[in-house]
Structures are given as structure tokens and as C-alpha cells.
Amino acid sequence: MDVYRTSFLEFEDFPETSEPVWILGKEYNALTERDEILSDVTSRLWFTYRKNFPPIGGTGPTSDTGWGCMLRCGQMILGEALVCRHVGRDWRWARGQKQREEYISILNAFIDKKDSYYSIHQIAQMGVGEGKPIGQWYGPNTVAQVLKKLAVFDTWSRLVVHVAMDNTVVIEEISECSGLLLSPCVLTGELNGCLEGACALAEEETALWKPLVLLIPLRLGLSDINEAYIETLKQCFMLPQSLGVIGGKPNSAHYFIGYVGEELIYLDPHTTQPAVDPCEDGQVPDETYHCQHPPCRMHICELDPSIAAGFFCRTEDEFDDWCMRIRRLSCNRGGLPMFELVDSQPSHMVSVDALNLTPDFSDSDRLERFFDSEDEEFEILSL
């Protein structure tokens, strides 16, 4: 389906309701701020199926239609982190305007070619190390682990991607990986040579903290979402650190960015568009990377229970604020906590080091058991 030929009327208009609309930590009034809502949604990076890109691995598929929807959702949640990191949550996209160099660099990190940091090529090939053949469907856990590994090589953004396992966020682990480890480029002030024009090091980035992307794979029920988690899930979209949620329903992965009433608001990757090549001057034709129709919605009870929630903390103060908000939410009686926040690792938990989660790990059988328990709930879409 060509996005340019898609009729605006094919998409259900945004509801006129007095209930608040929450989009990634921002609250809107649907009656008086409709344009602001649509501008916010349109400004999120929208990664969809693509076709006619260079073969993955040199001889593999040239399209991810039918199998890449969760990979694209992983790109979207990480893309939101990069937007927050480099241009800020309040940045807005407008068709035809001259774009900031940082924004162009973000897009280049996701272009469908083998040497882009977070391309479909990199995600698919990195997944092979986890026992996922190219062309196989991923679950939320798998894509979170792959993004963690790929972020190690992104010397421009210098993010730490931490994946919290066993429904538990361990503050001590995050302090170790984000608060104490400095990459060589931080110490020397070097930037990735292929990303010219990037902004200079911000003052806070010279301190002992690397911007944190926190991904929390969760299972909120057996075959259906446990309604006790619904209010807590909604509250996650209200946090200023929210990156949204990746998940969906059987046969279909989505990137959830907010809610209104009992409906989740999401971006849908199930549109096949031609691959995009950067222009000779380095600019990227970007209209197909932004969803320019009202966002999709689904009832929250339709959500498959296997999800991964994401949060971005640029500074240590933002992480401390996130911890405070999570502890406050856990004291509320409006819902069941989706995960536990603890200071140090409980004795019953498996050590991250024991899983050998380094950029070149190969113990795929063990990882399959820990990270892919949700995959049997999803099926590959028909081509």
C-alpha cells in the first residue's frame, strides 16, 4: 500500500472526547488541542515495512514485509530515544522544512543499508546470534536484546541500553552500566566521523552518566492481558520519561505511544513502502518516515500480554525522578505494579553477567529460554 495514495478518510478520525489524551508523557485536550495532538504524533519517527533495499547479508531478503513488524517497532522506540537525546521531546516535524543536522543523522542511523547503526540489516543479522534466522519473527524481548547490543557501536549517541529482566529493575545494575562506564569517545570528545555537524558535547555528558534507554520486557497475563495491570500501563504513558511500549496482538506488532480513555494509540508498521536512499547532499527524503494521518487506536484489552515498555533518562537526575515516580505509582491502589524497582539484585535473580550479554555472545540456546518465552504467541504474517 502506497502511503501517498492512501485516502485520509480510510483512517478513523481522532475522537472528540473530554477525556485527557496522553502521548509519551504529554497531556492534551482532544477538544481544544487536536492540531497539537496530530503534530506530536506526526513528529514521531514511523518505521514501516520497506521493499527493494539491498539484500540482507548480501544474498538475503530485499523486503521485510511479513516478518519485520516487531523489528520496525524496535526501531521506532529507539528512534524516539534518539530524538529525545539529540533534538528534544518538544521538537516537531513539518513537511518541507529544512531539517536540523542532528535529525538527519538520526534518520541515517535507520536507513535500510548494512552500515547504518540500527538498520533492518543490522537488527536481522544481530538476531542470528540469538538463534533467530533472518526473516524470522521477533518478540519484544528479542528486539530489546538486539538493540542493547547494537547501541554499543553507536559512538555518536553514546547511549546505554539496559534491559531489565524478570520484571525487576535493579538500580545498582543501571548505576554500573550508565553511571560509571565511559566510552573512549566521551573521554576524547570525538564524534562519529560519518555524522558531521552533530552538536558538541553537552556539559552534562562529560559527567559520569551516559543517557539511559531502559527497556523492560513484561508479560502481563497468560493469553490475555490481566485487567489488574491496565491502569498501571496507562500511567506509564503519563511519565515524562516514557518512550512508549512495543507489543501488539497475535500476528501484529505495534508501537504504542499513548492512550485516550480505554483505547491505546499506536503507530502501525504494516505498510510496505519503497526503500529510501539519501540524496547526494546528505539530506534524506523523510516524508515516508512520519505518519501523516490520524493515529490508529485499539481497545487496551486487545493487547497481547507480552510487551516491552521503554523509558529514556538523559541525566542521572531524570533517572532519580523516574525512580521516585515509579515508587509513588507502586503505592497507589489503582492497579497492580507491572514490575518491581529494587536497589540491588535479589539473590534469586540470574546475573546479567551469567548470561554473557556482550556484543559477541553466542549462547543462543540459553538466551532463547530467557528472552523469547513470548514468541510462541505470535505468528508470521502471510506474505
UniProtKB/TrEMBL annotation:
It catalyses: [protein]-C-terminal L-amino acid-glycyl-phosphatidylserine + H2O = [protein]-C-terminal L-amino acid-glycine + a 1,2-diacyl-sn-glycero-3-phospho-L-serine; [protein]-C-terminal L-amino acid-glycyl-phosphatidylethanolamide + H2O = [protein]-C-terminal L-amino acid-glycine + a 1,2-diacyl-sn-glycero-3-phosphoethanolamine. Its EC number is 3.4.22.-. It comes from the Eukaryota. Keywords: Autophagy, Cytoplasm, Cytoplasmic vesicle, Endoplasmic reticulum, Hydrolase, Mitochondrion, Protease, Protein transport, Thiol protease, Transport, Ubl conjugation pathway. InterPro entries: ATG4_LIR, Papain-like_cys_pep_sf, Peptidase_C54, Peptidase_C54_cat. Residues 35-324 form the Peptidase C54 catalytic domain. Pfam families: ATG4_LIR (PF20166), Peptidase_C54 (PF03416). GO terms for molecular function: cysteine-type endopeptidase activity; protein-phosphatidylethanolamide deconjugating activity. One of its GO terms (biological process) is piecemeal microautophagy of the nucleus. Signal peptide: none annotated. One of its GO terms (cellular component) is cytosol. It is found in: Cytoplasm, Cytosol; Cytoplasmic vesicle, Autophagosome; Endoplasmic reticulum; Mitochondrion. Cysteine protease that plays a key role in autophagy by mediating both proteolytic activation and delipidation of ATG8 family proteins. Belongs to the peptidase C54 family. This is Cysteine protease. It comes from Sander lucioperca (Pike-perch). The gene is atg4b.
